[in-house]
Write a structure and sequence with these properties.
This protein has about 425 residues and is of the alpha/beta class. The protein contains 17 helices and 11 strands. α1 packs across α7, α6 packs across α8 and α7 packs across α8. The structure holds coenzyme A.
């Protein structure tokens, strides 16, 4: 079966997490992704957080599936010639080096456009143009500067970063959208363009509902926040523990076994439409005839008390049992699933969201496959490449070098 991006070739100058997330998805859509790595060392994550001696780390293998690897130093003379040819032969170049790194290699955007006017040049940086545009940025810096940390955490507690990599992987996903839009526009215009995503912007985009609440604050307290009605609201959106970000109240409550199992919890949303089923299930049918409880407005000042009552019931059930009872009642809820449970979850294996891959150095490992499912372009996950595994193949087939040319490049330390 063909793939959505068959015939699209990506010059992948990415490293660490944000850029590789983007190019891995493009590879799963069928693009030929050529990952350019520094001769001798490659992407720094090959060596980071290693669990198996002398084998590429999971950090690397889980972000670089379905790619080809070429070692190349574009700062050498032979490297510049090869890099120029790769720009000519590719449709998209993606990079997430520190600000100015590609320019310092001798390839500013103006020159790239001259070499290949059809090339789409996509970059991730920590910040957009402005006072911080020359700063280097990692995940948690983006979470802190994009509004996620100030709005996450316990009430009255320190700002908190989340385990979801919204700065790195989140920005990579934003960049995928930009690249695909630019490829589509190129169909009509015949021209490439620059696509840029700043990590701060992407995190802020994902925190959109918090900027909504910032503006609502000017018109009174945020009534669905746990601080209402007894707590204080300052000038900015406060941290709200596990409160739901939407118009329907939600909270995490304990389930049977919570004393010893750190994940024996369930998230329950007391959605107005399903409230009668929830009240009956937890043994509080009396709420339904009580004007102190039977409307969302009446419950609003008593959400903490309401979730305490719900918790009394959930503590008598394990989390899957509670879900099994509440789901048929249309009560939105979700057990807190640990990574151990997700790794074993059969339905995720069936859909290819969790995939087992074999690797020549490290043996079998689990990775997360393409979460975006295309009916006519299913993703088949292939292991990540070894450093420089495809150097000669790419130099021959894409760059057009003969064996003598390859040898010359090798002697110069260009590959
Ligand atoms: C992630 C980040 C902080 C890492 O910083 P770093 O490890 O110091 O690396 P940098 O990207 O700043 O620099 C890479 C250097 O390697 C060089 N390099 C990269 N690939 C090379 C290659 N194939 N051959 C030779 N040199 C190479 C670059 O030219 C650059 O050198 P220079 O700064 O001397 O010009 C930084 O890349 C960054 O801010 N990126 C943008 C935001 C981002 O994506 N962050 C999240 C990453 S998950």
């Amino acid at each position: 079966m063909g793939k959505a991006l068959d015939g699209v070739r990506i010059l992948d100058m990415t490293h660490v997490q944000s850029g590789p997330t983007c190019t891995q998805i493009l590879a799963w859509f069928g693009a030929d992704v050529i990952k350019v790595e520094r001769p001798g060392s490659g992407d720094i994550t090959r060596n980071q957080l290693r669990d198996v001696a002398d084998a590429d780390s999971l950090y690397f293998t889980m972000l670089n599936a379905n790619k080809r690897s070429i070692t190349l130093n574009p700062k050498t003379d032979a490297g510049k010639e090869i890099f120029t040819k790769l720009i000519e032969e590719c449709d998209v170049m993606v990079e997430n080096f520190g600000p100015g790194a590609i320019d310092r290699m001798g390839f500013p955007w103006e020159k790239i456009q001259e070499i290949n006017p059809r090339l789409i040049y996509a970059s991730i940086k920590g910040f957009g143009p402005g006072p911080y545009d020359d700063c280097k940025v990692y995940e948690n810096v983006a979470q802190c500067t994009g509004g996620a940390a100030s709005t996450t955490g316990q009430i009255g507690g320190v700002p908190m970063v989340t385990g979801a990599q919204i700065g790195d992987s989140g920005t990579g996903l934003h960049l995928v959208a930009g690249i695909l839009a630019a490829l589509f526009q190129r169909e009509a215009s015949g021209k490439g363009q620059r696509v840029t995503c700043a990590m701060q912007d992407s995190v802020l985009n994902l925190c959109r509902v918090k900027l909504r609440d910032q503006q609502r604050l000017a018109h009174g307290p945020l009534t669905e926040y746990p601080q209402y009605p007894n707590g204080e609201f300052g000038d900015a959106v406060p941290r709200a523990g596990n409160a739901s970000g939407g118009g329907q109240p939600g909270w995490i409550v304990k389930c049977k076994g919570w004393e010893t199992d750190p994940d024996a919890y369930i998230y329950i949303i007391a959605q107005a439409q399903a409230f009668s089923g929830l009240a009956e299930a937890i043994g509080r049918a009396d709420w339904l005839d009580d004007s102190e409880w039977n409307t969302p407005g009446a419950r609003l000042p008593k959400l903490a008390e309401m979730f305490e009552e719900i918790e009394k019931w959930t503590m008598t059930k394990d989390k899957m049992e509670a879900m099994g009872i509440l789901n048929p009642l249309n009560v939105p809820c979700g057990p807190i699933l640990s990574m151990g449970e997700l790794a074993q979850e059969e339905s995720l294996r069936q859909t290819g969201t969790v995939v087992e891959v074999d690797h020549p150095e490290r043996g079998k490992y689990l990775t997360i496959g393409n979460p975006i499912k295309l009916s006519d372009s299913p993703a088949e996950v292939e292991r990540s490449p070894l450093l420089g595994e495809h150097t000669e193949e790419i130099l021959t087939d894409v760059v057009g070098l003969d064996p003598e040319g390859i040898e010359r490049a090798r002697e110069q330390g260009a590959i």
